[in-house]
């Protein structure tokens, strides 16, 4: 899916927009996923996602046909009932099954995005959503059981769903909830079947942003819409931090949507704080002058106080401890040497509490890293700068001590993230548990790599290998990701 290198003969729309075209035919994927009308190339080509052998249309029953010219290639036609069964199998493998005696915490009140999806189909005939979920389920099940025919069928449905998506967004009266739901499914498809690195996932995220920007007033205020907004905001935050940009740059209306689409759920509160952290990421990464650094430092402290107040409210919602130490190292299936890196793991009272803590520790890791970077900039300012004001050697050593303190604090939060991994990859957590690890473990790995904690960075690489083995193909891309290349847009392109 990576697309061809830039040439001047891209599609007419990409040429007008002066962006890189991926040369998908008859309409390029960048236009389709980004919500733009592709004006074509004036010659025929195949879609990138199609295979060399054409597949017949769907039939009313499940059949497997061998083509005479290529006996190794099978085409699978799946009727609606079997597609529904495939999706049910995917949901059962993706959504955690609560162990005996465990209940959902009050954080999310039992709401789950994928369990809400059937409401979209309630009394409706949605070709887009039907094909999107069928593509996801077919590729997932095919990958799990090693069925290449089923995976080919899933890719065919994926290609077809993207075409339907492009037709829908060009019409008035866009069914925005259906379109955004399909987009979230597309993103998860790329997380599981990550054949193009980050490129496919990024393209779908940008497409969702375009849809929200144009049609946000049509977005309902029901539970499903709130869960969709939450998922899309998290995608933007992950992408923004990787790019060292503000998430509001990619989708400025997220801040306006937050008061109306967020709930009292602690998860939504901490996501909004993370969104504001991305604003600081961009400003601090640009090496601002000292006068601006002081304002940014105050903004960091303000966000830190917000997190502390948020956590006090979270603690007040429970009569007991939200998490406890756990010395069972068998939870994390890593090499013996890696297991000794974090000898004490955590057990949480519920998955949504664990997710809230991971987002909280990620936000604090980001803020502590900001403070560390600010103090380092002060510590290594030229002597001429110090000469402009009466700054003593003791003051400079204070900057160094503060720098070391914030580095240790950032390491502490990165360690907290890693000690939580065992809880998320328990068998009953299924794929969703591992999915919740991709962002926080990536941030921990980025910190360890940048500050030369080599043993802890290698530990994160083993975790990514485990996540890849349970069905999260994007973890293989994250394994060893050079963050400087991600920032420049060279990873997965």
Automatic annotation (TrEMBL):
Pfam families, alphabetized: Zn_clus (PF00172)
Glycoprotein in keyword set: no
Key word Aminoacyl-tRNA synthetase present: no
Alphabetized SMART domains for the sequence: GAL4
Residue ranges of domain Zn(2)-C6 fungal-type in the record: 10-38
GO molecular function, one term: DNA-binding transcription factor activity, RNA polymerase II-specific
InterPro entries: Osmoadaptation_assoc (IPR053178), Zn2-C6_fun-type_DNA-bd_sf (IPR036864), Zn2Cys6_DnaBD (IPR001138)
Keywords for the protein's UniProt record, in alphabetical order: DNA-binding, Nucleus, Transcription, Transcription regulation
PANTHER family with a match to the protein in the record: TRANSCRIPTION FACTOR DOMAIN-CONTAINING PROTEIN-RELATED, ZN(2)-C6 FUNGAL-TYPE DOMAIN-CONTAINING PROTEIN-RELATED
Record's protein name: Zn(2)-C6 fungal-type domain-containing protein
Organism: Penicillium capsulatum
């Amino acid at each position: 899916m990576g697309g061809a290198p830039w040439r001047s003969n891209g599609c007419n729309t990409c040429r007008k927009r002066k962006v890189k075209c991926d040369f998908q035919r008859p309409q390029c994927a960048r236009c389709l996923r980004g919500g733009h009308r592709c004006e074509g190339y004036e010659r025929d080509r195949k879609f990138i996602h199609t295979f060399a052998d054409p597949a017949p249309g769907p039939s009313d029953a499940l059949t497997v046909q061998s083509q005479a010219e290529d006996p190794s290639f099978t085409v699978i036609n799946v009727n609606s009932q079997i597609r529904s069964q495939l999706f049910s199998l995917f949901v059962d493998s993706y959504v955690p099954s609560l162990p005996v005696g465990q209940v959902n915490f009050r954080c999310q009140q039992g709401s789950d995005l994928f369990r809400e999806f059937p409401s979209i189909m309630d009394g409706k005939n949605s070709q887009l959503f039907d094909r999107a979920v069928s593509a996801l389920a077919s590729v997932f099940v095919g990958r799990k059981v090693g069925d290449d025919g089923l995976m080919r069928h899933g890719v065919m449905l994926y290609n077809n769903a993207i075409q339907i998506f492009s037709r829908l967004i060009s019409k008035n009266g866009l069914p925005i909830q259906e379109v955004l739901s399909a987009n979230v499914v597309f993103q998860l498809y790329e997380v599981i079947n990550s054949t193009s690195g980050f490129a496919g996932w990024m393209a779908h995220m940008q497409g969702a942003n375009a849809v929200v920007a144009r049609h946000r007033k049509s977005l309902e205020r029901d539970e499903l819409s709130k869960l969709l907004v939450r998922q899309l905001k998290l995608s933007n935050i992950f992408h923004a931090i990787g790019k060292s940009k503000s998430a509001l740059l990619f989708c400025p209306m997220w801040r306006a949507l937050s008061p109306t689409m967020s709930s009292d759920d602690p998860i939504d509160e901490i996501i909004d704080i993370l969104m504001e952290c991305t604003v600081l990421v961009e400003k601090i990464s640009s090496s601002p002058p000292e006068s601006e650094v002081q304002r940014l430092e105050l903004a960091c402290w303000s966000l830190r106080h917000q997190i502390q107040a948020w956590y006090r409210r979270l603690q007040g919602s429970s009569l007991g401890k939200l998490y406890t130490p756990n010395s069972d190292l068998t939870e994390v299936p890593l090499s013996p040497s890696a297991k000794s890196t974090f000898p004490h793991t955590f057990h949480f009272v519920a998955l949504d509490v664990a997710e809230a803590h991971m987002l909280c520790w990620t936000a604090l890791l980001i803020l502590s890293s900001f403070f560390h970077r600010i103090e380092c900039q002060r510590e290594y300012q030229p002597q001429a700068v110090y000469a402009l004001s009466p700054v003593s050697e003791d003051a400079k050593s204070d900057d160094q001590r503060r720098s070391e303190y914030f580095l240790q604090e950032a390491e502490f939060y990165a360690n907290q993230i890693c000690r939580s991994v065992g809880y998320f990859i328990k068998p009953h957590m299924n794929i969703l548990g591992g999915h919740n690890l991709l962002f926080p473990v990536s941030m921990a790995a980025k910190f360890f790599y940048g500050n030369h904690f080599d043993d802890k960075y290698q530990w994160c690489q083993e975790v990514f290998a485990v996540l890849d083995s349970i069905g999260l193909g994007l973890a293989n891309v994250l394994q060893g990701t050079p963050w400087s290349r991600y920032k420049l847009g060279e990873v997965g392109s």
